[in-house]
Design a protein that fits this description.
This protein has about 400 residues and is α+β, with helices and mostly antiparallel strands. Helices cover about 35% and strands about 30% of the residues. It contains eleven helices and 20 strands. It starts with a strand and ends in a 6-residue tail after the last helix.
Length: about 400
């Protein structure tokens, strides 16, 4: 097989990149190792920055998003028995965020790809990237029981943290910066209407809790738990009791309970690989960087990456100019590191420290007091949460 851009990975990064290239008249092939059913039902975060919503609209992939997405005007911070609302449009000049599950984004992009776009091969496992320094790099992959090759002008590694793309970089060609946090998140999906209109970030001595939602009838909630926690050790009753305790405030408010339909534990880590390019191989999304979910940046960074990558590849295809693609890694990493910083600071500010450090606890409260008392500090948080400008 021969194509202009070979895309490894059929998650939101790879699918959106394929959609943008198709609209620009650049041919590509998407290789996804999993089945369509698996990809379309893989549960992930669903808080979209303003820029992500705009990018999906520009790609013609926002029909259901606009009809079903829940636009949020801000978030609520809870600590010391108090509740504080941050009004994003007021603090940012009109920017908002939207709740729309990543699962649904993938379904929308898959449908478009199969109906209008270039080839999307499911159960096509990439085995190796060969000759990335050459003008004709090759992806070897297994599909329908036989090994095949895809020769490309460029390869986009959108295959996530555990994919093969990042490992293709030879020794000395890249460096990884990583930080593991000493706690995880126990997340649940529950068939119950949300108990709030905006996301609630709660900080307390018992640990962090987050109240989010998937729809007007489905709630998504998280608890800070020790690393290595087995979700089966937490009964439904125990989960609801702990959530209620962590969200408690000195006011009349009750957490609605309902049937829990899914539960899982997510480790917390920060991981950035530099650079995001080796020869004709370019990384995007989780293949290049991971952030803790506290700041809701993972999916949004992936969209930022591929929006820039699509422009760069289109420039090369149409004009032969490599000016933008030569800057791709540096431009992406400037935004990645700001999102990593924001996610790190949000995580450290809201989570109880396992060693019970009293000084750290007081510093967390001081930071929260500063944000809720200072318009400048609140505006900085709102600007980062709704999304920094895309690289130009």
């Amino acid at each position: 097989m021969r194509t202009t851009v070979g895309i490894i990975g059929g998650g939101p990064a790879g699918l959106l990149l394929a959609r943008l290239l198709h609209l620009a008249g650049v041919d590509c092939v998407v290789l996804e190792s999993r089945t369509r059913e698996y990809v379309e039902h893989r549960q992930r975060a669903g808080m979209l920055e303003q820029g992500t919503v705009d990018a999906l609209r520009a790609a013609g992939a926002a029909g259901r998003l606009d009809a079903e997405g829940l636009v949020h005007q801000g978030i609520e911070l809870r600590f010391a028995g108090e509740r504080h609302h941050l009004d994003f449009p007021v603090l940012t000049g009109g920017r908002t965020v939207t709740i729309y599950a990543q699962t649904e984004i993938v379904k929308d992009l898959v449908a478009l790809q199969l109906a209008e776009g270039p080839p999307l091969l499911f159960e096509a496992k990439a085995l190796a990237v060969e000759k990335p320094e050459s003008d004709a790099p090759v992806v070897r992959f297994l599909h329908e029981g036989r090994e095949q090759t895809l020769t490309c002008d460029w390869i986009a590694g959108c295959d996530g943290f555990h994919g093969i793309s990042r490992g293709t970089f030879p020794p000395g060609a890249g460096r990884t910066y990583a930080h593991d946090y000493p706690y995880s998140w126990l997340g649940i999906l529950a068939d119950v209407a949300p108990s709030c209109e905006e996301l609630i970030y709660a900080r307390g001595e018992r640990g962090f809790a987050l109240h989010s939602m998937r729809s007007p009838a489905v709630s998504r909630l998280y608890l800070q738990v020790p690393n290595g926690t087995d979700p089966d050790d937490w009964s439904d009753e125990r989960i609801w009791d702990e959530l209620a305790a962590r969200f408690a405030i000195d006011a009349d408010w009750t957490l609605a309970r309902g049937p829990i339909t899914a539960k899982s534990v997510t480790p917390m880590r920060s991981h950035v690989h530099e650079p995001m390019r080796h020869g004709r191989l370019l990384l995007a999304g989780d293949a290049a960087h991971i952030v803790p979910p506290t700041g809701a940046k993972g999916l949004n960074l992936a969209v930022s990456d591929v929006s820039l990558l699509a422009r760069a590849l289109t420039d090369v295809h149409r004009t032969g100019s490599t000016q933008l693609i030569d800057r791709y890694s540096d431009l992406c990493l400037s935004r990645v590191w700001q999102a990593t910083r924001f996610s790190y600071e949000m995580t450290r500010m809201l989570h109880a420290q396992p060693n019970g450090d009293a000084f750290e606890s007081r510093m967390q409260l001081a930071r929260l007091r500063h944000i809720t008392a200072s318009r400048h500090a609140a505006a900085e948080l709102a600007a980062n949460y709704t999304g920094l400008p895309l690289p130009v």
